[in-house]
Structure formats: structure tokens, C-alpha cells
Amino acid sequence: SYAALGSYDPNTLYVVSGSTASTLSPYTGSIRGNITDVAEVAGDVALDFSLGNFFSSSVDGATNFVVSNIEPGQTVLVRVNTTQALAVATFSSNVLQPVGNEYTASVGINEVDILTFTSFDGTNTNLVAVNNLK
Q1: How far apart are the first and last CA of the chain?
Q2: What is the reported pLDDT for 7?
Q3: Most buried among 3, 11, 82, 129, by the most CB within 10 A?
């Protein structure tokens, strides 16, 4: 239904902003979002999931990722660049990880990891990671 858009014109490109595009669901084709760069401040990287679904950040000697504004059904990808050898990443308590397979940053300098966060309940997010992409 396109009622929320007013009168629908098939020759018009409609731009949807924000994270609530339910009036155009289900989607066909591809959807892309802006990539938000997030800097570490006093040891923390604030990942505010209301700002988008794609983030880029870095991890150094000790970096704590703090996740906020999680929505149910949301998936967020974070590109992490290691800026120190043997960097250490920790996460806020609302980030759940597979026991025995928690994320450990790639060990070299300027290596790239991808973190995938998915939420089913809007309270916690589940994290899985891929390390050392070349």
C-alpha cells in the first residue's frame, strides 16, 4: 500500500530517510545506507543504532564498543580497522556473542574486521565477526 505517500506515481523516485521505511515493504532491488565514521572517545566507541546500519571505526590497545538504540529486526555492520598490534575490543553488556567464539580483533596493524550485529528483541544485539579481510 502506498497510501502513506499520498498519490502514488510510478514515474517518481521516492526517497526514504531514517530507519522506518515500512510503508514501502517488502523491498525489491537493493537498498544502501550511509556509512557513519565513529571515533573513539576516552576509550569508548558509541554505536548509536538509530543513526544508521553501517559504521566504520577503529580498535586500538583497548576499545570498548557501546551499543545503544537497538531496534528489533535490525542488522548493523561495522567495519573495524586495527590501529595497533594486539588490539583489544570489549562491548557493552547488551552485546551477546557465541560462547567460546567471542570477537578478538585481528592481530596486525591496519587489518580489517567486519562486525555484524543483529537484534531480535530490541534489548540485546547478537554479534558475529569476520576477521582479517584482504
Answers
A1: 43
A2: 62
A3: 82
